[in-house]
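Budget justification aside, the reviewers requested a transparent look at the raw inputs and outputs of the sequence design task funded under Objective 1. We therefore reproduce one unedited record. The lines immediately below are the structure tokens for a 343-residue chain.
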């Protein structure tokens, strides 16, 4: 947002907007409102480091690996610790889980236990950090399932349809936060001059007609027949469609964000390239489910190619799933090709 704000119009900060959203939840205690605002604060802190990562000497790898077997970037660690430390003591959470940790993250014993559960991917697309490509943070918020005591694994293993709120931050040419509590999807842009998020994209709806398809076609030879035929359909090579333009960044948040605003489909299907990942690369709890929740409330749809992502019952914290997400008609077309050609 420009520092020269339009003073004749309504200026809506993220804090004001979140408080307004609270009115949709009768009996709300304000805990969710405060939790969302703390996540916005975490985004400001992470953004302050992503824009000066080289100067702060936090580019590059730590030398360690996360639970996924991926090299851990220094900025990954910073983002992970920032989100945890801003939320471990507030009394709003029962438990947390992060893509960077094998097990659940307990609330320290000296702090009170709350009624919400926070799952997060602290820095999505971190393999692009060293190349100044847009990266992001994805978060999910659930109400705990257990009634008392510290939060448990059961509290974290919930379907996307049970989400209370979900959102992401994208760190690029500007920093944006996009979130939904089930009453529309709203985007906020950080004004670095005043250090505040302002409402810049109210009531986001995925537009029609779609413009783009987003996929890593370097893996195409490892895809099923249905997915390969679907790709040809998107390219307009089957004679039944006009064809879309290919846009692929390689950071899930960045690709999803572009398609959310312009229309299109992102997909990361299962492939045969890596036998250890027969269900694809993306994680159900940290990536697929929260973005599926956002897509739904922006008029879109997300599927694993056969079923809605939001209906999938997770069996483990780091469960992987194929993902097709974007305009509903494009995702349903993927399901159609997979049914027809993959059995």
């Amino acid at each position: 947002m420009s520092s020269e704000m339009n003073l004749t119009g309504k200026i809506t900060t993220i804090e004001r907007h979140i408080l307004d959203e609270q009115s949709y939840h009768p009996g709300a205690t304000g805990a969710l409102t405060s939790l969302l605002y703390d996540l916005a604060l975490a985004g400001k802190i992470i953004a302050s480091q992503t824009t000066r990562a080289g100067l702060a000497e936090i580019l590059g790898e730590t030398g360690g690996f996360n639970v996924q077997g991926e090299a851990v970037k220094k900025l990954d660690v910073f983002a992970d610790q920032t989100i945890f430390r801003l939320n471990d003591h507030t009394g709003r959470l029962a438990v947390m889980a992060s893509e960077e940790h094998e097990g659940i993250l307990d609330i320290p014993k000296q702090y009170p236990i709350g009624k919400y559960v926070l799952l997060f991917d602290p820095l999505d697309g971190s393999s692009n950090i060293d190349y100044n490509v847009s990266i992001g943070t994805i978060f999910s918020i659930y109400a705990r399932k257990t009634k008392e005591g510290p939060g448990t694994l059961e509290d974290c293993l919930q379907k996307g349809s049970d989400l209370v709120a979900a959102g992401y931050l994208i760190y690029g040419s500007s920093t944006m936060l996009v979130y939904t509590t089930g009453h529309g999807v709203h985007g906020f842009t950080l004004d670095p001059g005043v250090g505040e998020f302002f409402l810049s994209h109210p009531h986001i709806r995925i537009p029609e007609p779609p413009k783009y398809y987003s996929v890593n076609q370097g893996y195409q030879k490892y895809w099923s027949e249905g997915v390969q035929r679907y790709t040809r359909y998107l390219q307009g090579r089957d004679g039944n469609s006009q064809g879309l333009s290919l846009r692929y960044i390689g950071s899930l948040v960045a690709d999803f964000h572009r398609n959310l605003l312009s229309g299109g489909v992102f997909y990361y299907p299962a492939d045969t390239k890596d036998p250890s990942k027969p269900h694809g690369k993306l994680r159900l709890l940290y990536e697929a489910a929260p973005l599926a929740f956002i897509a739904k409330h922006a008029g879109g749809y997300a599927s694993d190619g056969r079923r809605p992502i939001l209906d999938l019952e997770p069996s483990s914290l780091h469960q992987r799933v194929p993902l097709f997400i974007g305009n509903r008609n494009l995702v349903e077309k993927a399901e159609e090709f997979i049914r027809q050609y993959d059995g």
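The radius of gyration is 20 Å. The chain has two domains: 14-201, 212-342. Computational costs for records of this kind are itemized in the attached budget.
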